[in-house]
UniProtKB/TrEMBL annotation:
Keywords (A to Z) from UniProt: ATP-binding, Folate biosynthesis, Ligase, Magnesium, Metal-binding, Nucleotide-binding
Limits of the Mur ligase C-terminal domain: 307-422
GO molecular function: ATP binding; dihydrofolate synthase activity; metal ion binding; tetrahydrofolylpolyglutamate synthase activity
PANTHER family to which the protein is assigned, alphabetical: DIHYDROFOLATE SYNTHETASE-RELATED, FOLYLPOLYGLUTAMATE SYNTHASE-RELATED
Protein task: Functions in two distinct reactions of the de novo folate biosynthetic pathway. Catalyzes the addition of a glutamate residue to dihydropteroate (7,8-dihydropteroate or H2Pte) to form dihydrofolate (7,8-dihydrofolate monoglutamate or H2Pte-Glu). Also catalyzes successive additions of L-glutamate to tetrahydrofolate or 10-formyltetrahydrofolate or 5,10-methylenetetrahydrofolate, leading to folylpolyglutamate derivatives.
Name of the featured protein: Dihydrofolate synthase/folylpolyglutamate synthase
């Protein structure tokens, strides 16, 4: 274990709970390390259930295409902690180097001492310290969980706030209805700061708009203040500034059109000088690992049937299942192949709700454990949930066994394989594949 990993391991023990939503502890720690939160670049703060990371990926690609220096903070990571902190650099941002990360973590650990603080709070403080110490034009900041009491919400005056699609997730922390969850996400809204509200259900949208008006945040609402539609394979964006005729996003799936629209609306609100050419380039270049990502090489393809498509996605809730199934149906329409769904999930997730969207679409379901997650559904339980909905399903003890089962199945055509249900499972696929995230 290197010094960085040793510090990260110690930080996990500073609070008895993994998640304890509050702002008091991080505010105390930020005071102890010199208030880096007051020395950050102009910030776009993003919350939501699904689409946060993709929206930040679009924002980053567009801003960097315009020559801007951009810091980015996201969570969780897939393969290594460094992925959470991307520092601005000439020619595009780079993941924080091990030495710089180790120094920042050690600095915050010394300043905190033995006082209780959650892992996310102290690592967020370390990220702010790094961001405040390096020049940048923008900071793109993703909430960890919720919004109102999320550690990132110590930022008092962002340039814009964005709330992406809201659905049921983490009910044990945020509430058991989309309206209650929307209320928590709306906690990032600030007086006088534009609030960009992405495409929402009626109930969530109503709560978000009410809370924005209550705090005095100017509203920019999807479907009212900005619109998107497809025309001849192009994405057309429209707002009060006019029309943009744009290429379809590089990130696959129609849901990414909505995420891209939210990113564009945010930039048009706070950085109207960003040229259309940069927005167009950003749509073509944006990348976001493990979100409907197709593997193009690596060990997993060696284990899969020859010529098979292999896709991975961290979608883990009902809405995530819906957009994934919609994407697979679109792929099926354009290039028919039998779909094999390899699925694993945490017990805190409603795996039945996720699976129901694949009824009539997935030719087979293979359930696997989520490695490293003690609260993972047993593969037999996931397989039983799939069978209860009329799907053919089997249980496997590992990803390797699941891929062997797909390979041994006599499909009439080369299959399309989707691995989904958990970001931790997606991370396991990337690790097995020998992939790197830079």
């Amino acid at each position: 274990m290197d010094q960085r990993d040793a510090i990260l391991s110690r930080l996990l023990d500073l609070h008895p709970k993994k998640i304890d939503l509050s702002l008091g502890r991080i505010e105390r720690l930020l005071e102890a390390i010199g208030r880096p939160d007051l020395r950050l670049p102009p910030t776009i703060h993003v919350a939501g259930t699904n689409g946060k990371g993709s929206t930040l990926a679009f924002l980053r690609a567009m801003l960097e295409a315009a020559g801007k220096r951009v810091h980015v903070y996201t969570s969780p990571h897939l393969l290594r902690f460094n992925e959470r902190i991307r520092l601005a650099a000439p020619g595009g941002g780079r993941l924080v180097e091990d030495d710089a990360l180790t120094r920042a973590l050690a600095f915050c650990e010394r300043a905190n001492g033995a006082q209780p603080v959650t892992f996310f709070e102290i690592t967020t403080a370390a990220a702010f310290h790094l961001f405040a110490s390096a020049p940048a034009d923008w900071l793109l900041l993703e909430t960890g969980l919720g919004g109102r009491y999320d550690a990132t919400n110590v930022i008092k005056s962002p340039k814009a706030t964005v709330v992406t699609s809201i659905s049921l997730d983490h009910p044990e922390f945020l509430g058991e209805t989309v309206e209650k969850i929307a209320y928590e996400k709306a906690g990032i809204f600030k007086p006088g700061v534009p609030a960009i509200i992405g495409f929402q259900s009626v109930g969530a949208g109503r709560v978000l708009e009410r809370e924005a008006r209550r705090v005095g945040a100017p509203l920019i609402v999807a479907g009212e203040d900005f619109h998107i539609f497809e025309e001849n394979g192009r994405l057309v964006f429209e707002d009060e500034l006019g029309l943009l005729d744009l290429p379809a996003p590089r990130l696959p799936g129609r849901h990414q059109h909505q995420n891209a629209a939210g990113a564009i609306a945010a930039l048009r609100a706070v950085a109207p000088e960003i040229p259309a050419e940069a927005i167009e380039a950003g749509l073509r270049k944006a990348e976001w690992p493990a979100r409907l990502q197709r593997l193009s090489s690596g060990h997993v393809l060696d284990l899969a049937p020859p010529g098979a498509e292999v896709w991975i996605d961290g979608g883990h809730n009902e809405d995530g299942g819906r957009v994934l199934a919609d994407a697979m149906a679109e792929f099926e329409e354009k290039n028919p192949r039998p779909l094999a769904l390899i699925c694993g999930a945490q017990t805190t997730k409603d795996v039945t709700a996720l699976l129901r969207h694949f009824v009539g679409l997935a030719r087979m379901v293979i359930a696997v454990p989520v490695e490293g997650e003690h609260k993972s559904w047993a593969p037999e339980e996931v397989a039983a949930a799939a069978r209860a909905q009329g799907m053919e399903a089997r249980a496997a003890s590992s990803l390797e066994e699941a891929l062997a089962l797909v390979r041994a199945t006599a499909f009439q055509e080369t299959p399309r394989i989707l691995v989904a249900g958990s970001l931790y499972l997606a991370a396991s696929v990337l690790a097995l594949n020998g992939s790197r995230i830079e």
